Amino acid sequence: MTTPLIGVSKSILKIKELIHHVANTCLNVLITGETGVGKEVVAQSLYSESARSSKNFVKINCAALPETLLESELYGYEKGAFTGAHRKRPGKFQTADKGVLFLDEIGDMPISLQSKMLHVLQSGEFSPLGSDTEFKTDVWVIAATNHNLEESIRNKTFREDLFYRLNIIKIEIPPLRERKEDIPPLIEYYYRTYKSEYPESGGTKPDAHTLEILCNYPWPGNVRQLQNCIKKQIVLRSWSKIIDELPKEHPMIPAEIQTETNTNSNQIQINPEFANDRTGIISQFVDLSTSSEKLFEDISLKKIKKLASDRVEKEVITFVLEKVGWNRSRASKILKISYKTLLYKMTEFKVHPPI
Amino acid sequence: MADPIKLLIVDDNEDILSTFYEFFNSMGYEVKTAVDGFAALKLLREKSSFFDCLITDLVMPNISGVGLISIVKKEYTHLKIIAMTGYGDQPGALASEAEADVVLFKPIDLFKIENTVSELLNSKDDNE
């Protein structure tokens, strides 16, 4: 069963419209987007709306196979083409004839295979390994990648001519966090899917509060991650467990969410660009997860200064004491404070020699 | 000619688009514009026989100029096509392969395009 393209956001509606307009052109398509956004779902939609839907949809993952294997998978081989080629085997270009060939992770295709791919796309002809005969092929090529191919071209890992040949129709799928309005319909869809798959399970739909948390989570793994959560919920039967288990530390997740998933509407908004550094430091001394009202009450520069300097002092004192084998008199000289002050600070910061 | 020539101009650079629009308008053409191949295709699907000539950029989001040219060549055969590119040889070569009538390399002199348009449409009249 193929998954339909689900969403109500402007970007998804536009993609649906674009699919409708180009499904019968058979022009090469390049689908881009982060991992898990649904690139294959878009490819499947193109295929099922096209006149080729009665023929094969053949998928190959260009990142999953070593170079030589990828080549023989794509083009097939003749008997005796290499050691172990005991009989002739057709390649994906042959199986996909008159249908669709979906080249997933095209950005990871070794550069040496890219020139052969270019040749096939240009001429519509290919020859299996170990064969002199050129076969004519009529495939609709849909490629997908999570790489920025323009960058790969600059880094010389992707051929510019191949890029332009694939990039005739470009479908860019934005990450889920940029189209939060798609989250409720996606939850609804996957909930129903898994509920019908496991009718005995006690999984429930998220309540309004949980739904709000789910909609505000940044989903670094996009739709696939959301889908897995819903499946897990059907088994675990607890949304709070699912939410607790969502990874909070991820480069793509701003610090405001890393400290607290439970987003209140009156929470302070932090510019995500600077959020990681700044809020990371501040959150060591103030609890940023409270409402802005409470937070503004808590923030006092004097208090924070004391907390911050105490913390550094404690570390420095411990560091020096360790260096001098816990000789307090030597440490106080190095730190340029009196012996008495050092003893006082050690008690205050609970710095004790190891037993 | 009684009817003004109808142009569809496509470019994802809005500055270029408005410059072209002003220029061709002042030269007596009837001009419609689109910001990418997809917007252009929608205009064409609405009124397919309306336009006489398509002037399109090549590297654009959604449907590229090359894609648009291929579709027009198949579905709207009466349209004359001028492709413009600023991205080196690759897209230009693909546009020729897609059978654009003329491929021009940016920067392009507006008067030169105007010349090309009238030449193309005159040769069309000659053929008919």
Distance between the termini of chain A: 65 Å
Approximate helicity band of chain A: 40-55%
Bin the strand percentage of chain B. Answer: 15-25%
Radius of gyration of chain B: 13 Å
Gross morphology of chain A is elongated
How many H/I helices of chain A?
Answer: 17
What proportion of the residues of chain B is helical, as a percent range?
40-55%
* Integer average pLDDT of chain B: 89
The residue ranges of chain B in which pLDDT falls below 50 over 5 or more consecutive positions are none
Q: In the CATH hierarchy, what is the superfamily of chain B?
A: Response regulator
Secondary structure tally, helices of chain B: 5
Taken from the alpha-carbon principal axes, the silhouette of chain B is: globular
CATH topology of chain B: Rossmann fold
Strand order of the largest sheet of chain A: 2-5-8-1-9
H-E order of chain B: EHEHEHEHEH
Backbone CA Rg of chain A: 29 Å
Number of domains of chain B: 1
User: Which CATH first-tier class of the largest domain in chain A would you pick?
Assistant: Alpha Beta
Features:
heterodimer; A: 355 residues; alpha/beta; Rossmann fold; Helicase, Ruva Protein, domain 3; Arc Repressor Mutant, subunit A; 3 domains; 5-stranded parallel β-sheet; two-stranded antiparallel ribbon; 17 helices; elongated; B: 128 residues; 5 strands
Explain what the structure shows.
The complex is a heterodimer of chains A (355) and B (128). Chain A has 355 residues and is α/β, with parallel strands linked by helices. Chain A folds into three domains: 10-174, Rossmann fold (3-Layer(aba) Sandwich), CATH 3.40.50.300; 177-298, Orthogonal Bundle (Helicase, Ruva Protein, domain 3); 308-348, Arc Repressor Mutant, subunit A. Chain A has helices at 10-22, 39-49, 67-75, 92-95, 111-123, 149-154, 160-166, 183-197, 208-216, 222-236, 239-245, 255-259, 272-282, 292-298, 301-323, 328-335, 339-348, and strands at residues 29-32, 57-61, 76-77, 89-90, 100-104, 125-126, 135-136, 140-145, 169-172. In chain A, the strands form three sheets. In chain A, strands 2-5-8-1-9 form a five-stranded parallel β-sheet. Chain A has a two-stranded antiparallel ribbon with strand order 3-4. Chain A starts with 9 loop residues before the first helix and ends in a 7-residue tail after the last helix. Mean pLDDT of chain A is 86; it is low at 255-275. By secondary structure, chain B is an alpha/beta fold. Chain B has one domain: Response regulator (Rossmann fold). Chain B has helices spanning 14-26, 37-46, 65-75, 89-97, 110-127, and strands at residues 6-10, 30-34, 53-57, 80-85, 102-105. In chain B, helix 2 (37-46) packs parallel to helix 3 (65-75). The radius of gyration of chain B is 13 Å and the shape is globular. The model of chain B has no long low-confidence stretch (mean pLDDT 89). Classes of the chains: A alpha/beta (355), B alpha/beta (128). At the A-B interface, helix 1, helix 7 and strand 9 of A face helix 2, helix 3 and helix 4 of B.
